[in-house]
Design a protein that fits this description.
The protein has one domain: predicted glycosyltransferase like domains (Thrombin, subunit H). Helix content is about 20%, strand content about 50%. The chain has two helices and seven strands; from the N terminus they run αβββββββα.
Length: about 110
Amino acid sequence: MGGVLQNRRKHVRVPIRAQVTCIADTRTLRGVTWNLSQSGLQVEVAELRRKAIVQLTFRLPLSGTIIDALGAVVWQSDRRHGIKFKYLGEQSHESIQHFIEEQSRG
């Protein structure tokens, strides 16, 4: 069953624990990431509403590369939120892609 769900996903997700800053409207919130894909990430943070547009900043482990992105909250469950990237610069996209490839290799 897990394989079927994984196959339905467009992009591979990898675990990531990093501090994340989310700016939504005029509020700045701090949280932590749970997983990352080329299309978005799961974060644990208080008080984000569904469909909110969020500016995200986080640092990739190991390389320390800073990722700046714009995303939209597509789902929420308690304090966890799924955020789909709406804008991701080319450098950030390449850094995320490299990080995912490295993590997928084990």
